[in-house]
Amino acid sequence: MAKTVMFSSLLFSGLVLLLLIANPTGAVTCSDAAQDLLPCLGYLTGGVPAPPDQCCTGAKTLNQIAAASAADRKVLCECFKSAVKSLPINLNKAKQIPVLCNFTPVLPIDPSVDCSQ
Predict the structure, then answer these.
(1) Mean pLDDT value of segment 10-18
(2) Cβ atoms 60, 67 nearer than 8 A
């Protein structure tokens, strides 16, 4: 149990650090994204079988922000790319969040996406 808590804390710290390193230029920041997606971490790393309601709420909030602003969409895209490439996130599970949370994603869930588009 202690190892799981320590691993989760370390993983979250890494997520926040990576998301803070990205160079945000819009109103939304990578730390905002990390905060909204923190409830998804257990699902994305394989410890939880389904995304909790708080995960869906955060993912939907970020999706709405991305839909409303091209600058925020680019910032979030770069944040997500950094996180997916650097953390032990199950990409297939990440792609299932919009389906399981019942929304259409504005951003593709793909670490090779061109965020300038």
Answers:
(1) 47
(2) no
Average pLDDT over the chain reads 83
Type of residue numbered 19: L
SS3 92: helix
Longest alpha-carbon distance in the chain: 43
Contact 55, 97 (CB under 8 A): yes
Tokens 């939907």 locate to: 60
- The answer to which of 11-15, 44-48, 68-72, 100-104 has the lowest mean pLDDT is 11-15
**What gap in Å lies between CA 29 and CA 65, rounded to an integer?**
11
- Token couple for 113: 């996406």
| Structure tokens belonging to residue 45 | 């790393």
Pairwise CA distance, residues 34 & 11, whole Å: 11
Residues comprising the chain, all counted: 117
* Residue 96 CB neighbours (<10 A): 16
